[in-house]
Amino acid sequence: MASLPVDIRVARLIVLGYAFSVVDEMTIIGACLSVQGVFTENYKKEMSTYAAKLSWANGTGSDLIALLNVYKVYTERIRQNQMRYETMWADRCGVQIRMLREVVTLVQELQYRLEYFNVKAIPMPHGVTMNDYERCIIIKTVFAGAFYPNFAAYGANDGDKEKETFRITNGRNPANTVILTGLPNKYIGPLYRKTIREIFAPCVDVSTRIEVNFDHSERIYVSFFPNRSAIDSQSATYLTDMNAEQEVLGNVLLEVYKSVKYGQIRHNHRIHVLNPGKAETYAVERGAGEVVNGAFRWKRHDELRRDYVVYPRKNHIAGRLMHVVHLHKFFIQPDEELPYEEHIRTLLNTNRNLDVVRKEHLKVGMMVAATRKFGNHAYYARARVIGNDINAKTVEVYYVDFGNTAELTMTHIRLIKQGTYVNECPIEKLPPRLLECRLACLTPTAISSVRGRWTVSTIKELTEKMRPPVDVAIDVYAFVDGVAYVTLYYEHENINEWVIAKQLAQYTDENFMVKFDHDQRVNCEKLNHEYLLDDVQVDVMVRPQEAEVAPPPENICDREITLKGPSSPLTALIYSPTRSASKKVCKVERNSVNCVLLDNDFQDYHQKMVVATHIKKSASGELSLLNTTIMPNIPGILPLMALIFCPTAEFCRNVDNTRFISILTGLGTKPGTKVPMFEEHDMQIPLDVKIDHDDIECINQLRYSISTLLLLRTGQNIPELDNNVRYKLLQKIKDLTISIVTRRRPLCERKYPPKPFVWNQCDIKPSELLVIDDVYNGASIFPFLTSVKLDVNVKSEEGGRLKKNCQDLYTIAGINRLERGGIKCQLCDTYLNDISQVRLHLFTKLHRDREKEIKFEVATH
């Protein structure tokens, strides 16, 4: 490491890159970090700079991977002799050519020096093989090791935070909604919809639909619906890796990230408004508003008929799977809707109800009849035009009753005549005769998806398992925003469990709105009542259109109002687990790709993790994280990374000694004392997953393998290992890392020890320590961790107490009554203050995992 002309942390990055079989990538990233200034930092064009960095990061949430991608593209351009317009390319992509040239030179110098120490990538067939998802996990693991202890955490859910998120958005989806504030209700907000949309012009594509909504507060809710979002992904969110632009992690829209960034740059937005009385008059005169019983209201009409909406009235439904987009968006036609579908088919395949139409007369959104194959035959079906390029010979349509799309020539498209009715409902106003569904309580695994989205290979496996159209059955978990959250059955097999067994998905908590609706459905089923939708849920499905009017000109406006934002309730609060930063505010530097850090999976109980190359302290005491990377969303990722790379660790047990509740990592104490050797970098990390001796054994094997690979024995300048031994060690390091981070672990409640950041605070007998002697006599880079014995069997009286408390919770939920003062869930160490909290808590993954741990079963009476 001393032979490399770079910072010690960068040298550590490269050496660990060699140990984890990604030395070429780490050498490039190390050179980029050493040169600095690869990206252009133009504060007058901060939005375009931010957008460019998002593109380079490519949905990985890492500044370092963005640097790697820049280098790869630049060197590929050199290889293909495409340097004629390199200055224009650099300006367009937000990078500096002079700095990139320096990086290329430094990479060559580093590789030359590393060659002397035999630190280089192993060629195939002896090299370690990884798929893209494994490689991303390995690369981010190396970042954690190289920049330990520059760790930060965010996103720990306490239940109330999740509920507050939906309260702030007034029940709207926070994944596609941002908020402006400062427009009182009396000023008739709908008058200024167009003005408000113009505020977001720098943040959205021209094809993105922007909905602006108001309630009786000063908040303005701005929701984004990208072109085709209702067809290609779940309502307004990207959930697959099939999109051409994969610029952000998870399911929150890119438009939300850009809007929040825009709010950071320009927090205040001025608009001109009329006084309340004049505003009402202005709206009424233009036909957008009306006064009813002395009260003003804005006009609106439903695009579809409310009384014909299809939704799951029962919890068990049989039907046909018609089309699969991905595991969170597929379409099922209930058997009870088959008569409607047959009636529509009969109507549309009668010539008297159809007319020939010219291509130039078709508009996007228009309802038409389009041919669709049914087995060996083709019939006309209802479809909406979703694409009509004047230069193309085909028109793209979306079959509203089947969920799929097609590109057709005009010979296969007909206009539906006015006055065509289905059971007294105009055919163009009849809602789709199918259910949009998603698999409930599932999310992509980190090993199967880099960006937290469903991949093409995962979708392919599902569609090969059951090729639409096929007969299926569903158990409805919840119905929210027009989407049914379901357990899917095919040929009596539970598909939710099948995708988990195939490691394509993992269990997760659903958000507050879904759990609330699930509770309502459970109640209806117990009382043998039919589940009915409220008006808010119906609005989502019928898409009511509010009247629009041009905003009043500035010259007739009476005053100027300042709007603040945009902001998102998903904005993450970051904290550092180190002692030196334990009481300080942390934030990501404004030039980072993660300067807008949103908690994509806000319903998750476990903490998420960020790694920074440096942490800078401001004059006010704030800490800024530089060159950040968001680690994979894996339960327990923070303590696992700390245990893999820490110098030493101390485990703290609960009062019953049945499990570990916290770890303290750092350099330990001075010999024979309790005085920390370097307390500023000590990290106290409460555990929110169950880490056991099997985990510690695997971590010790990994630490031993890295130490063996990099060990310098007496008199050696470079590690001298037999090639076969080296190849086996590299493969073992990769396999152990993937095994450790992808192992399923049950959740547990977070607890701190009585005295945080204090070493040797527990009086542990020597016989309780699980000590492994260092085989290299203190020369190991990562010595074995010393663990403590656990009493794995819960004491009978303690187990009985926990089971009784659990049964009490179910009894309270059943009788729907809770005494004043609330109740504590002793399993999860959580206080529940009202009956709704009790009912929703019983659905959480944390509580279900803890129930399995004590082998609790609900008593039936």
From TrEMBL:
Residues 361-423 form the Tudor domain. One of its GO terms (biological process) is piRNA processing. PROSITE patterns: TUDOR, ZINC_FINGER_C2H2_1. Pfam families: TUDOR. InterPro entries: SNase_OB-fold_sf (IPR035437), Tudor (IPR002999), Tudor_domain_containing (IPR050621), Znf_C2H2_type (IPR013087). One of its GO terms (cellular component) is P granule. It comes from the Eukaryota. This is Putative secreted protein.
